[in-house]
Amino acid sequence: MLSSPLLALAGVGGAFSPASAAADSIECRARELHFRSLVIDTHVDIAQRCFFEQFDMGRRDAEGSVDIPRLREGGVGAVFCAAWVPAKLSGASAVKRALDLLDAVREQVRLHPGDLALARTAEEIRRAHRDGKIAVVLCVEGGHAIDNDLAVLRSFAVLGARYMTLTHFADTDWAGSSGGLVGAGGSKGLSEFGREVVREMNRLGMVVDVSHVSDRTFADVLETSAAPVMASHSCCRAICPAMRNLTDDMIRALAARGGLLQITFHVGFLSAEYHAAMCAVMAEFESRSRIRNEEFGDNEARMLRQDELLRAEMVREGKLPPVNWEKIVEHVDHATQLVGAEHVGLGSDFDGAFMPEGMEDASMLPRITEALLRRGYADEDIRKIVGENVLRVLADAERVAQETAAGASS
Ligand SMILES: [Zn+2]
After folding, report:
1. Could you tell me the distance, in angstroms and rounded to a whole number, from the CA of residue 226 to the centre of ligand 1?
2. Mean pLDDT confidence for 212-226
3. What φ, ψ does residue 259 adopt, rounded to 5°?
4. In the chain, which segments carry CATH 3.20.20.140?
5. Where does 217-276 show beta strands of DSSP type E?
6. Helix-helix angle 192-204:215-224, to 10 degrees
7. Band (13; pLDDT cuts 50, 70, 90)
8. Which of 51, 81, 130, 240 pairs as cysteine with 104 (C-beta 3.0–4.6 A)?
9. Cα(211) to centroid of ligand 1, in Å?
10. In degrees rounded to 5, what are phi and psi of residue 236?
11. How far apart are CA 332 and CA 343, in angstroms?
C-alpha cells in the first residue's frame, strides 16, 4: 500500500486530515513492528498437503493458507508443522502416517535451503531468523501416533519433533480427549503410562501440548509436567463454549506454571454463534461432507478443502454465520487481560481448519499486530505475543531436559 500519511500531507486525495494521518501512522508503525519481530505460528497443517499432494511450499498457491511466499508476506519467522494423525488410524499405521508427514516436511526443508531451516531449539530458531530463513519446527499431533511405546516417542524426538499434542478427537489408551468439533468432551484423564509419557517428554525437552485434551487430562498434565506446557492451538471458553477451548481457571493454571495459550483461528473455536449453529447442523454437515469426500480416499488435505467449500455453501444458505478475523484479537485480549502478555500467542491451524474472513492465509498475519497496537498494547507485549513467548517455553523445556540429565548422572 502507498504511504498514505505522505499522500495526505501532500494534499493528494483531498484536504489534510490529522485524524487519518494518525490512523495511517499506526498502520506504518504496525508493519515496522511486525516485520522486526520474530513471529511464530505454533500450529500449521501443511504436512498433509506436502505428503498427499506433493505440494511444493516454494510455489504461491491460490488454495490453502501456507507456502513460502505467503509466510514471507506475513512476516513469519518460524512455523510449527504438525504431523497430524487422524484418530481413525491406530497401531503401526498411525506410526507410519506420523513418519510420512514428518518426512514430507523435512523434504520441503531440503528442497528450499535458501528459505527454510529445520530448527529444534529456541537458539536454532533465532539463528534461522538471523540468517533470513523461516525456521521449521516439527511436532506430532495425536498421542496415539506413538502406539503406546516410549521408544517411538523418542524416535519422533530424534527426527526433530519438539512438541506432541497428547490426543486428537478421540481418547488414546492413556489420555482423555476433549472430543470432536462439537460435543461435551470426555472425562478420562492420564493413566499411569500417560504420566510416564509426560515425564519422558520432559526428559527429551519436548513441550507437552494440551490442545485437544479433556479437562481432566489437562489437570493431570499440569500436576505431572516438570516443564511449562503449551496449548498450541486453542481459544478461550469464556468467549466460545467449545470444549476444545480453555476456561479462565485453566488459563490461569497454565500461566501460573509458566505455560502458554496459543490462540487458534478455527471459526468454531472463535465464535460462540458459529459454534452453536454448527452444533445444530453437524449431522447435515457430516452427511454432505461424507458424500463429497468419498472419492478422496484418505487424502486429508483434499477433504479439508472440500469441507471448506461446503462450509462456505452453508454460510450462503444461512445455516452457518460468517466469522470475522477480529474475533482472534478478542481472544488474545481476553487471555492477556486474564494472565498477562507473557502467556498468550498464536497457533493458527492454517491448512487444518476453517479460517475466519480476513485471515484466510499467512500473508494476513500483520493485521493482528496492527489490531493489538490500535488497542493500545505496548510494542514489547506485542513482540511477546507474536513469538517471543514460544522461545521462552522452548528454552524452559530444554532447561528441564538438561537438569533431568544432570540429575540422572550425578
Ligand atoms: Zn488440532
Report:
1. 24
2. 98
3. -85, -170
4. 37-409
5. 230-234, 260-263
6. 50
7. very low
8. 51
9. 7
10. -100, 125
11. 10
Distance CA 73, CA 107 (A): 22
- Residues 6 or more apart whose CB falls under 8 angstroms from that of 171 comprise 177, 186, 188, 214
Question: Distance, CA 80 to ligand 1 centroid (Å)?
Answer: 12
pLDDT at 1: 37
Pairwise CA distance, residues 121 & 233, whole Å: 20
The CATH topology of domain 37-409 is TIM Barrel (3.20.20)
Which 3 state secondary structure label does DSSP give 71? helix
Please check whether residue 230 is in contact with residue 259, taking contact to mean a CB–CB distance below 8 angstroms.
yes
Q: How many CB atoms lie within 10 A of CB 1?
A: 7
d(CA 300, CA 238): 31
pLDDT for 108-148, tens place per residue?
999 999 999 999 999 999 999 999 999 999 999 999 999 99
CA dist., res. 278 & res. 289, Å (int): 13
Residue in this structure with the C-alpha cell 493458507, named with its chain if needed: 65
The pLDDT score that the predictor gives to residue 409 is 76
| Grid cell for residue 324 | 470475522
Confidence of residue 183 (pLDDT cuts 50, 70, 90): confident
Cα–Cα dist 262/395, whole Å? 17
The residue to which cell 498427499 is assigned:
52
Q: Please spell the DSSP secondary structure of 189-218, one letter per residue.
A: ---HHHHHHHHHHHHHTPEEE-TTB-HHHH
Question: What's the gap in Å between 242 CA and the centre of ligand 1?
Answer: 13
* Cα 5 to ligand 1 centre (Å): 41
Of 258, 257, 246, the C-alpha closest to 217 is: 246
Torsion of CA 89, 82, 264, 26, to 10 degrees: -160
In this prediction the pTM is 0.93
**What is the Å distance from ligand 1's center to 141 Cα?**
7
